[in-house]
Amino acid sequence: MLFPVCGMILLIMAVCLFVEFFGRTAPNVASYRKKIALLKSSVLTEEMKASLGKSPAGGQAGQAVFLSVCNTAQRASVFCGTGADLDSAWKNAEDQVRKFLENSNYDPIWIKADVVDFSDTVQTEELVQEVREARHEFYRYGIAFDPNFQTALLEAELNGAKIYDYDNGGIDQEALNRYLKKAGRDSMEKLPEAYIKFQCRGWFCDEDNKIYPLSTDALDYGRRMEIVDADYAQELIMNASNFLVEQIQEDGSFVYGIYPRFDNDIDNYNIVRHASTLWSLICRYRLEADEKLAEKIERTIAFMLDHVIYDKEGRAYLYEEKSDEIKLGGCGVAVVALTEYMEVFQNEKYKEVCCALGEGILSMLDPVSGEYYHVLNGDFTRKEKLRTVYYDGEATFALCRLYSLTNDTVWLKAAQTAVDHFIEADYTQYKDHWVAYSMNEITKHITDNEKYYDFALKNAQENLQRIYERDTTYHTYLELLMATFEVYDRMIEKGIPVENFDQQLFLDTISIRANRQLNGYFYPEYAMYMKNPQRILNTFMVRHDGYRVRIDDVQHNIGGYYLYFKNYEKMTAYGLSPGNHGRN
Predict the structure, then answer these.
(1) I need a labelling partner for 325 at 20 to 30 A (CA). Which of 394, 419, 448, 469 fits?
(2) Burial bucket for residue 231 (CB in 10 Å: 0-12, 13-18, 19+)
(3) pLDDT of residue 21
């Protein structure tokens, strides 16, 4: 009897081990279950079901639900479920995700749910025309390639993988099949004659299991809805500047830019943009002093100074080696960055080189007309009179900063000559943020010239309606508005008359621009559809240029939000409503 008893004991032990090992829920599945339960409770509500109505949003397919899962290191995997009602469509999609996770070690850190709430059939010719006429990356519809949604992709998938062909219209079949293959799905030998275009209501669950309902608004489509108050502006600044810090390399240069759809670096380095990016890091240091950041700032300054050259008169210029050029704007932003550094760190470490750069700027300024010459060759001979209007404002801003540094009126008088030209030539036509910065700076020193104040306000006032209505993020607009706000506030404090200025439209425009720029912020619900989401998470991009992330794009966003944060209390006292994103 001994052997049967022993055998029974061994069998029981084996069963226990089997149950313990195979019955244990894998960590990735456990994480998914918690997140999907939270999403389910947010989505599968009676209110949601009632809003979808009896007419299936997915047409012939019935109701349609998409679940996107992302581990933050790779492009999201997306699963579509359909059914006669929302519950069955959800279960269909959820079963697919569970099967995927059970057969992998994939960690679903982010999960996004999309429920189709609008669909319409479009013929090929219609789709081609609609996509061709849309701004690049702004055709905000998903596409089902068959009536049953067997092959259906979200808008974020189609734009994130460059499947929409904006140049020719319609669908890029090669890009579509490349995407389907990487997703482990069947390719399409032939595109259909008709498509189902659709839009969704979305919800996003983050790494902390927090649920964010996503906007269905045309411009804000697919992202969380936030109110940009001072705290939120500071969060944006800190996150975006953290991204810039991560881009600093050992030699002090930055990783210049990324096209994130396929995680490709942008190699065309620009020393002018290096200098302006350095300026934004110093603004970040103002918000939170950090010795590691200070060391990296020094490193980026050293890299920039390695690109400063001197002529035989001892005048300094910022030199762009790859093009063998000296750009007026480069000299200007280098001075701005260095004077900002000395002000923040309370030293005069770079005073000498700043003055030498100032002399370089003066050599490119006509002291009579106030016009600048824009580009020199590397041997200091003249190359190009006009390159971009931005250079004029950058150089004038720098001259004002040099006056603050030295109290030498030569810099201020030169700046006045340039500003007089801005007024005479009506630079308001350019909607230039650098002009706004320079006017803000010069009116700190020249307080008795009302035409300077009038011009500073006009630079915004003449363009307010256009800025208000701009549909893209256009990140320099917030800088223009905020630099102008500082001039306006100074006028009110000093009792300088303000005439013919629409204060309420001005404040409303600031509010809408601060919100509109969020459409260019890589929230995880946007980033998850890029090749390497973690790399570009919580920084700024230019959607209509292939979601481009470039150091100067990030810098301009930081600049605008920094002044917004700095002046937030004053703006609200004047009547700013941060949630005011439209006018009645």
Answers:
(1) 419
(2) exposed
(3) 36
Give the neighbor-by-neighbor strand order of the sheet with 308-310.
Answer: 308-310, 316-320, 325-327, 375-377, 382-384
Q: Return the H-helix or E-strand segment holding 204.
A: strand 194-205
Name the amino acid, one letter, at 238. M
On whether the CB atoms of residues 517 and 527 are closer than 8 A, the answer is no
The pLDDT of residue 1 is 45
- Low-confidence residues of the chain: pLDDT under 70: 1-25, 580-584
CA-CA distance, 469 to 545, in Å (whole number)?
Answer: 20
What 3-state class would DSSP assign to 164? strand
Q: How large is the C-alpha radius of gyration of the chain?
A: 28
Q: What region does 422 belong to: left with phi over 0, alpha with psi -120 to 50, or beta?
A: alpha
Tell me the average pLDDT of the chain. Answer: 94
pLDDT for the residue numbered 290: 92
For strands 264-266 and 257-259, give the pairing: antiparallel
Q: Which residues contact 519 (CB under 8 A, 6 or more apart)?
A: 219, 220, 223, 472, 473, 543
Contacts of 556 (CB under 8 A, 6+ apart): 433, 475, 476, 479
Residue 381 per-residue DSSP state: -
Measured CA to CA in angstroms, residue 488 lies from 126, 141, 243, 420, 493 at distances of 49, 42, 32, 19, 9
Looking at residue 218, its pLDDT comes to 87
Within 10 A of 471 (CB to CB), how many other CB atoms are there? 12
According to the model, what pLDDT value does residue 316 have? 98
**Full-model pTM:** 0.93
483 with 440: CB under 8 angstroms?
yes
**Burial of residue 122, with CB atoms counted within 10 A of its CB: 0-12 exposed, 13-18 middle, 19 or more buried:** middle
Q: Give the 3-state secondary structure of 88-100.
A: HHHHHHHHHHHHH
Tell me the C-alpha distance between 485 and 488, whole Å. Answer: 5
